[in-house]
Amino acid sequence: MPNKKSLTERVSERFSEFKEKYSPKLKNAVFDARVRFAYLQESLKGIAQKVNKENIGKLTLISLTAPVVAITYSVPSLASESINVKDYTQPYNFPAIVQMYLKPLDELDQFEKEFIDLLQILPEDKQKDYAKEVYKNQSLTQKLLEKIKQEQIAEKPVTIDDKIDKITQKPKNPVDIYAVIANGTDDKDQRGGPMVAAISFYKLFKDVGVDDDNITLFLYHPNHKDFKDTKKYKKMMEYYKPSLISILLPSDQSKVEIDYENRKVTKTNFLKAISEIPSDSNDLIYIIVSSHGTKDGKIRFPDGYVNTRDIKTSIKSIDKYGRVLILKDTCNAAKSLEQLKGTDNYIAIAACAEDDTAALGEVPLLLVEFFNKYPNISTKKLVDKVPEKNPDRVPVLFYSDKNLIDEPFIPKGYSLK
């Protein structure tokens, strides 16, 4: 029986087959890749003895990806292939705010890829800090790359088990939505518009899969038994198609879980509900309010008025959040919303300009209608749709960062039923 040839001899023999078929640069790359793969296989044999049955599937996954890894590191043209930051970060399950901060990187070079690979190992609070630096500079600096490398040295060394788990793990912290929805008035001359608007947004959040535990609904309706008793609903029945009404509103009010009703709808309870939202840095918050508005921008509640600074203070009481969106459906809605400056990661939608009147309930209903038509639409495009259908209704946008309004109004992880 002839002597078994060594690994290098076997690979060298096979390499000769490529001489006529490939360019010299690619020949060397392929040869190097085959050698790397062979040694990876030998290394995995040693690891296999330490892997229990539970990790066999994980080890198989690494074995299957090893050829790709070897070739990628061997062929410079493949290793440096352009890739968008959104596509590159997708497997890492970064919080929404971190993904937003990384947007300036756009098409990644090898140093930016290295930065992201190091970033994904860090705890969420540090991920946010490093990503925010990228956003502030609108690029990755050499200083920041060196800083994160030093961070890795200080962190606990990553073991083979850590790497296996990282490949196969599911998202540990999905994006949660929290909503506080309120109508602060129910005057007969309003035809029940604020009440209908509040219920419509409640239905929207339920339709995309938000749990009732994450929705706080304030419903003030002393002049109406339920939303079907309002002039607004009866007008909708007259002019809207049944299919659209079924999108905008539930079949009846018994399907609505109300947290605070009539006398319990107070400005104190409303502001407290905002400040006690148990979100984290990966979560999105929606504050929807429809009511009378004063000329100086205050929002009427049964027991008084809520101003922008009250809302800002309540938001700042929240421990952590990824983004907060406020919809103010009142007359003079844009008035005083500039006072939100200094609030982190906020978007505010005013139903009308600061010296204009609002047909209460109309803008919220249009937003819900267009979202159902275009579920992945950005906040900016959603708001722009309103005057396309009704030129008399022109909402005004306020925000802490322009990139926020280009993100989906509802994150893609949530979908309409």
Description:
The protein is α/β, with parallel strands linked by helices. It folds into 3 domains: 7-79, no CATH class; 85-168, no CATH class; 177-405, Rossmann fold (3-Layer(aba) Sandwich), CATH 3.40.50. Helices cover 46% and strands 10% of the residues. The strands form 2 sheets. It has a 7-stranded mixed beta sheet, with helices on both faces. 33% of the residues are buried.
Largest sheet: 7 strands, mixed
Contiguous low-pLDDT stretches (5 residues minimum) are 18-32, 46-51, 61-80
Counted up, domains total 3
Q: Name the beta content range.
A: 5-15%
Number of helices: 18
User: At the third CATH level, what is the topology name of the largest domain?
Assistant: Rossmann fold
- Radius of gyration (CA) equals 28 Å
What class, by secondary structure content? alpha/beta
| Distance between the first and last residues' Cα | 68 Å
Please provide the count of β strands.
Answer: 9
Mean pLDDT score: 81
Write the layout of secondary structure elements.
Elements: H1 7-15, H2 24-48, H3 56-74, H4 76-79, H5 85-89, H6 96-102, H7 110-119, H8 124-137, H9 142-154, H10 160-168, E1 177-183, H11 193-207, E2 215-219, H12 231-239, H13 242-248, E3 260-261, H14 267-275, E4 284-290, E5 299-301, E6 304-306, H15 308-316, E7 323-329, E8 346-350, H16 362-373, H17 379-389, E9 396-399, H18 402-405
Parallel strand pairs: 1-2, 1-4, 2-3, 4-7, 7-8
Antiparallel strand pairs: 5-6, 8-9
Helix pairs in contact: 1-2, 2-3, 6-8, 7-9, 11-16, 14-15, 16-17
Task: Provide a brief overview of the structure.
46% of the residues lie in helices and 10% in strands. It is of the alpha/beta class. It folds into 3 domains: 7-79, no CATH class; 85-168, no CATH class; 177-405, 3-Layer(aba) Sandwich (Rossmann fold).
